[in-house]
Amino acid sequence: MKTLKFAVLPGDYIGPEVMSVALDVLKAATEPAGIKLDYTEAHVGGAGIDNEGKALPDSTVKICEEADAILFGSIGGPKWENLPPAEQPERAALLPIRKHFSLFANLRPGLLYQELTDASPLKTERIPEGIDMVCVRELTGGIYFGPKHTKTLEDGDIQATDEMVYKKSEIERILDVAIATAKTRGNKICSVDKANVLTTSVLWRETATEYVAKHAPEIELTHMYVDNAAMQMARDPNQFDVIVTENMFGDIISDEMGIVCGSLGMLSSASLGTGKNSLDLPFGLYEPSGGTAPDIAGKGIANPCAQILSAALMLRHSFGENEIAEKIENAVKQAVMDDKRTGDIAFGKPSIGTKEMAAAIIERL
Amino acid sequence: MKTLKFAVLPGDYIGPEVMSVALDVLKAATEPAGIKLDYTEAHVGGAGIDNEGKALPDSTVKICEEADAILFGSIGGPKWENLPPAEQPERAALLPIRKHFSLFANLRPGLLYQELTDASPLKTERIPEGIDMVCVRELTGGIYFGPKHTKTLEDGDIQATDEMVYKKSEIERILDVAIATAKTRGNKICSVDKANVLTTSVLWRETATEYVAKHAPEIELTHMYVDNAAMQMARDPNQFDVIVTENMFGDIISDEMGIVCGSLGMLSSASLGTGKNSLDLPFGLYEPSGGTAPDIAGKGIANPCAQILSAALMLRHSFGENEIAEKIENAVKQAVMDDKRTGDIAFGKPSIGTKEMAAAIIERL
Ligand SMILES: CC(C)[C@H](C(=O)O)[C@@H](O)C(=O)O
Ligand SMILES: CC(C)[C@H](C(=O)O)[C@@H](O)C(=O)O
Q1: Is-contact A234 A122, C-beta < 8 A?
Q2: What does the entry list as the binding residues for NAD(+) (chains A, B) (predicted)?
Q3: In chain A, which end has fewer C-beta atoms inside a 10 angstrom radius, N or C?
């Protein structure tokens, strides 16, 4: 009997509620295939700070190390808002965990079903069939992890510096992920940079051009400046198929993509590591793109789809269970099409709770 | 008789067409007040490369130095697209001119008239009364002008670095501009940074908090992470009044703001220098936010409003002619409301050409 060994980090506010039903869906989807779930729960984020004094407790890291993947919940919220920015749960948990497990590739599907175009801030005529793209963000390099310093100058002024650093090899490995993603889709990659200003972007652009030509000449590679990409994303997101970009630009552009896709409650993400797990597949962290929705926490009405779709991504990337992943994705879509919807995506139609939503998805597996 | 001495850099493609009628409007607006225009034209951008071998020719710099302000046209386009990114006209003209004249403060009004909400990609119900905000971008610091280097590592890998550098004094002077702008509007500033990751942003946030509390306690200051700002801009732009942010974030967020405001043909900008001109007012560069629209160049149908509104900003900031500036701004708005519109903002209504548009504005001064 195949066993899936993963860590479950439910997180804060709505985190545990949606995690709980996501595990139900995962169980229902894998059981018929004779697959067993073997997971251990651990604190992270605000729950980590409150229970163990640290957003990413050592005990949590240990549990993750012993697993083949991490199913991660949303973290943070008003309770910890007055902490200094660098100590806030999201930042204090996510940056170290990315670094520790070399989670260098963040994949965010930008998916909006045609049935949900009302959820997008964009005029419906701009996205008549919804949105379907993927953003591939480099996640362990660039200005996030480069050297930082602050000093007092002779004249008393204070000067701060952050270094954006990229190696060619780091760019090549994220291109590999973008290429693999593009091959499962339209064979189109748009590389986003600021090569007219940044040296790192010049290296990025040259490397992309050279590497794609050499390793995947069938792929159509284009380049776009990040300022233009921010415009194009809000103007016509469907011009993109796969975007690949560096850490900071990816942070901004993928969040813009998220909002343009309407409900954050539907958006999942995968952060893949350089390391292989015990199945010789990429170790990865899988999490919803949206936040912890403190205003509705505990009410049983949060949208669990993002967490459920993140579990599907885990099945695909870290456990090689493509078929079951697709089954879950189709069931989520079918439920929404059948008007089984939580409040955030109901648009005047009757809405259902978190558990009912999960049940509707399980019925459609 | 008061004389306005400025340099006119018409730029490329539609640049000269819209510049020519903008000068007509400027003349018509200032003449009744007994004001004379004294301007000298010079090449810049592609025209600079083609005529003098340089995107920013020395002779052009000299003409600008002798003036009290620069009225600048859009530059760049397909003709120079195959040049390396760093040599493309926009980049090769704008970065040196900003540095040379210490144009540290870029002001971009994000203005969408209620009559033009069709032009925005956003659903009309999100912006029922149009959009009205201002983005204040720091323009001579940060990663644009910090040290850059590339080196080959021992293992043969290549590594590139760009340094983002900010001094407290640079942050304070851009805050001064944001404060002055906020005082003419709703007394609200949103400072955009990435203080959970960047040291420069920590300095930015601390300086903003301290400086506004000390020098303009009546202003309501909020802080937002740049990734969230990219979401909020596409979700609900009117939550912003004045945004202040560093160079790179401002590049991205202000372009997103531009597209959200619909027609780029309506958007102007001012880049103010640290230096004072002969009138003891800020030396500045005034330019449309949109591009050179090569597809319609020479057809006499380009929207001249962005260039005309840039001229109005010049009157206000570098010549202290607030009343005439407002007169022009009102005339542009009135013309659009009276359905005098170029093709880009006509939306099915009959459209008029560049010259007719300018004439309609002059009639309404
Ligand atoms: C919390 C923060 C450090 C993080 C980032 O900037 O990467 C978040 O915004 C994200 O995108 O996951
Ligand atoms: C051309 C480029 C260097 C420039 C910038 O990034 O500042 C442009 O995008 C702008 O915003 O004026």
Answers
A1: yes
A2: 77-90
A3: N
